[in-house]
Write a structure and sequence with these properties.
By secondary structure, this protein is mainly alpha-helical. It is 53% helix and 6% strand. The chain contains 6 helices and 2 strands; from the N terminus they run αβαβαααα. It has a two-stranded parallel ribbon. Helix 1 packs across helix 2. The protein is elongated and about 55 Å long. The model has no long low-confidence stretch (mean pLDDT 82).
Length: 135
């Protein structure tokens, strides 16, 4: 309606190797170039699971210094597997609620503030916070 094109890409592959993702990212880049669609690199964000192959291919093929974030659903799945690190089982729902709320942040600045507050609030859950911080 406002005559703007927001490019996005979707691809499926049978292997999750870095070379496969390099091919995908180069195809997106070249396709946009062929269509004369400029890439707004300032707003570029890769949303993916925590696959090193995807992240490495993105950095090596296209953009070294751009935002790469983990998909919320993948993050939640990884966190749920580590809930056993929380000693007080009564806190699990509250911790997950705080994580879900942080995902609603309207921008990266608010998200970083929310994440820092989360880490500060739950610092007593040392093993879980150590895992969370490393991710």
């Amino acid at each position: 309606m406002i005559k703007q094109f927001h490019s996005y890409g979707m691809a499926m592959c049978s292997d999750e190797k870095e070379k496969d993702f390099k091919f995908i990212f180069m195809s997106i880049r070249d396709g946009l170039r062929d269509l004369n669609v400029p890439m707004n690199e300032h707003n570029l964000v890769l949303i993916a699971d925590s696959s090193d192959a995807i992240r490495n291919a993105f950095q090596k093929t296209l953009w070294k210094n751009h935002n790469m974030v983990m998909c919320c659903a993948h993050m939640r799945k990884c966190i749920i597997k580590k809930l056993c690190l929380i000693e007080d089982k009564d806190l699990i729902c509250e911790i997950m609620g705080d994580l879900d709320t942080s995902q609603l942040s309207k921008n990266s600045i608010v998200f970083k503030i929310a994440t820092n507050l989360f880490l500060k609030k739950w610092k007593g859950q040392e093993r879980f916070i150590e895992y969370f911080s490393s991710q």
